[in-house]
Amino acid sequence: MLNNYLLIIISTVLVNNIVLTKILGLCPFMGVSKKLETSISMSAATAFVLTIGSMTSWAINHYLLEPNDLVYLRTLTFIVVIAAVVQFTEMLMEKNFPILYKMLGIFLPLITTNCAVLGIPLLNAQASHTLLESAVFGFGGALGFSFVLILFSSTRERLEGAHIPQPFKGSAISMITAALMSLAFMGFIGLDK
Amino acid sequence: MLTSILIILFLAVIIGLVLGFSSVQFKVKGDPIIEKIDSILPQTQCGQCNYPGCKPYATAIAKGEADINQCPPGGEAGVRALAELMGVEYKPLNESHGTTKPKAIAFIDEDTCIGCTLCIQACPVDAILGAAKQMHTIIEKECTGCELCLPPCPVDCITMESIEENAENWKWKYPVYSISTSKTKVNH
Amino acid sequence: MKLLDKIFKFNGGVQTNPKKDISTKNSIKCLPIPSELRLPLRQHIGNMPKLKVKVGDQVLKGELIAEADGNISAAIHAPTSGKIKSVEKLLIPHPSGLPDFCVTLIPDKKDQWIKKAPVNWEKLGMEKTIKLLLNSGIVGLGGAAFPSHLKLGNNRNSPINTLIINAAECEPYITCDDMLMRERGNDLIKGIKLVQSLLGAKQTIIGIEDNKPEAYKIISDLIIKESSVHIKVVPTIYPSGDAKRLIFLINGIKISKEKRSSEYGIQMFNVATIVAIYRFIVHGEASLSRIVTITGNIKEPRNYEVLFGTPLESLIQDTGGQKIRNNTFIMGGPMMGFKLPSIDVSVTKTMNCVISAEPEMIEAKKEPLPCIRCAKCAEACPVLLQPQELFWFSKSDQFEKAQNYNLFDCIECGCCSYVCPSNIPLVQFYRYAKSEIIAQSIEKEEADIARERNDFRILRLEREKKERAERNAQRKAENTSEEKSKLIEEKRAEIAAAMNRIKDNEKIK
After folding, report:
1. ipTM for the complex?
2. Average pLDDT over residues B135-164
3. Which residue from B minimizes the CA distance to C47?
């Protein structure tokens, strides 16, 4: 039983990493990773949103949509729920961590439009996970997102002191770094066999 | 059809209640960002940014009314620090507000001063010592180099003297050396 | 003693080519009094002393020229009798090449001493003794120039139980302490006993490197009868002479970064400083001279005992000058020293050695290459820092991150630059970063003060406005309308009378 959950975690964090393998959630990945502090706070916020969002989306799907044959409303309801959770997270952050809130700026409400945050509940629904499996899948996805985000922002901070040729400065070198990281994560294919 | 509408309505009501409750619970008072912006500004209080001092400019930046590149005494380093704090892109200094000049201190020519106190009223940090019909003088340590005392003086007796490098304020310089490729041929 | 036999080794450090025997072949030479003495006022860490003489004054040897300003300061005394010629900005031995205030003294060759007043410290008590030491001009003569009176005195909060004498002299080329021990050993031992009693320490350990066998023999013979003074030989590794390194080598105690050695009951002095303290307390002689090593690419290198303020040119001339002329002189050692801006400077309290640059020392030959992240510098750092990280951040002006890696713990010993295979001048980057950070913090302090003043000014103006409004309201309330019309009538009458007077005057004209 536990094996199943462990497998889900490994597959979402390493093998099918949402950012580097599934290529979802690139917007905050690129936008927030300039500094390590904002990355950590963004990963915490996304983890919170993803886990709560996965669980509530599962509940709505299982109790409201599927029994009433309203599967076509899935996308709509999921987005509404995620938007609400993000709004709640925003208010929490503004009250308790105002500096981080200001630093994240526009990217905090943009978690709503993060394709990873919509994608994971939809994947859960498609794969007909149970509640616990959905929660673990959501949390694992968030873990993978945070893992890669923190690695990437540390690399970007390091790059600040390097001699980068003028044409590559800024987003260009970041994109190339992300691509190299993605290549590296390809090495995990076949791990969950 | 009806079920779908009811379900969506139900969801909307629940979410609305939760959010409404939490918005009251997590109300935020005040804005600490203004202090943070003000601590980056150089406190010259010169008004070159078109605001009557550094705190009003910081408030304007926090509200979004002013741009971050309006402060010449803060220089490029100041704009970069503001850009990082506000999470916006770095912009070069807006030349229409002035250029960054090396730090200078005002100096009153005592032979010409008539003791009118107009400069004392103009100084934003009270760095001028004097009284009506008495000699005026600048307190060197407190002068920020804002140049606000120059226009009011009716006899133009105030000049700006730039601070030169001396044994006390000398800094080690950035080591400059050339990294050239080795010119010797390697024989295999 | 068991502790003396234990060998401790600190991590890092480098083995250098000591090159000490160049300047130890001859004994210490005393030069005759030069024709001019130029004394910089700033020769120590702390505030600039306050001038007590003016141009034209006649001074005696040992007379106070400038008084210590505050507690962290030291005094300057006249090294010989003569007349004050000028107080002006002259070239000082400083890496910047900028001039600073110097007092120029023209000796009258009479070398007349002021009345010497030995200090009976046991009778006077520690407080008064420390006050006298404040104006004795004694600073650390090992090169740091920290006012010594701050290190003496038995503070009951942190009593000193071990006095350590720094006789290591780990930097290559420098031999002034070695020669001092060989030739002035008696004074040194007397000084050690004196300082030991001043501090109330139970024992003294002299730390000496193993490349000084002659000095070791002389000193150990002298302390045979002293039960509380011991000598310990430490292996010759640079920088064993650094205070915290030497303490570890001697008794294995690691002094943590934020704390001072006095908090561990240990105080350390250089041998030359001990002799200076001895001469002041027992003989009443202020700090007027020191031993300087002139070595390197020199015809006759040796050690000299010179008065402070002696022009360096006369010293170099006496040695016969450079063997290969390149007019490049380094003050200090080859690891921590800096290039002198010109030879037109005078001897100061920090000048322990002047090296005439050997051809292989000239920088132009060594071209730096990019950092290859080999971390040889991290292996060599005696303070266990990460020089490659500090270099990365100092180079790209990321000062906050450099401070996270403990930039200010760096003692600038130069081990990292010595071992760097790419010949990167690492210490220059750290010095640059440190001075930028200090300048930024000074600016921030000034900005904070300006902000406070501005806030207060706004407050003051508002307060004045309020007071004025209150006063006006009060005045209005006092004058009722009747009184007001009466006042107006009176004023009108006065104006009419004045107008009549004017008319009358005109009529008369």
Report:
1. 0.80
2. 89
3. B168
